[in-house]
Amino acid sequence: MPATQIRRRWKTVALATSAVLAGLTAPTLTATPAAATTTAYDTTYYRNAIGRTGTGLKSSLHTIVSSQNKLSYSAVWEALKVTDQDPNNSNNVILLYSGISRAKSLNGGNTGNWNREHVWAQSHGDFGTSAGPGTDLHHLRPEDVQVNSIRGNKDFDHGGSPFTNSGGSLTDSNSFEPRDAVKGDVARMVLYMAVRYEGDDSWPDLEANDSTTNGSVPYHGRLSVLKQWHEQDPPSSFEERRNDVIYTSYQRNRNPFIDHPEWVEAIW
């Protein structure tokens, strides 16, 4: 039985209700930590991480996911046509922030094309597009060329205004808010990078923090908001399939926060 069929998840979200009586304030919307899950990989791939928490869990996961095949930047083009294929149209890919289904053949750098979006912005650590963090499929997604440019290297946070082909995403002077359907995806990609790249393999030590002015330092924010998004938007079937395809067909490593959402709270 595929791993995606045996995963068990429970999620409890406290719902805010409108306050209509004078002097009352609507309760703040909160999310409870994801409940423990099990996967087919717990006795094999994740066996050295099971039962750990905090820095011990982060260290174990780093060792586990650091064993991977690395792609060239040119190979990423073809890989994204598989990992991000539209489940309703095999000729198209789904663009991350826009949610648009666009022809696989329209990859490139012109208006109307899609290109390779680094969810962990390249400049946050200056790692470029060499094999490593610059080509890691776990944070590379297809996106409209102009939308990719609008996102730029901004940190993630609430707020801003919509823009052409935004799909519900928002941006302001120093942050970017993805559309609701992929908020959790973005969070889990950023946190994967913070675990995978710890500065012990010639690449920068990437870490999540609570800033929206990280610029060229190897940090990405905002951690507090990313954690909220992770809870509010749990892994979807699209995200789970993508994780499986990257593992089986390309890099031979997994994003642990898709398999075990509860590990985000266990570490951060």
Automatic annotation (TrEMBL):
Signal peptide: 1-31
Region (Disordered): 152-177
Pfam families per UniProt: Endonuclease_1
MF terms in GO: endonuclease activity
Biased composition range(s): Polar residues: 162-176
InterPro entries: Endonuclease-I, His-Me_finger_sf
Keywords on record: Endonuclease, Hydrolase, Nuclease, Signal
Keyword Hydrolase annotated: yes
Descriptive protein name: Endonuclease I family protein
Lineage: Bacteria, Bacillati, Actinomycetota, Actinomycetes, Kitasatosporales
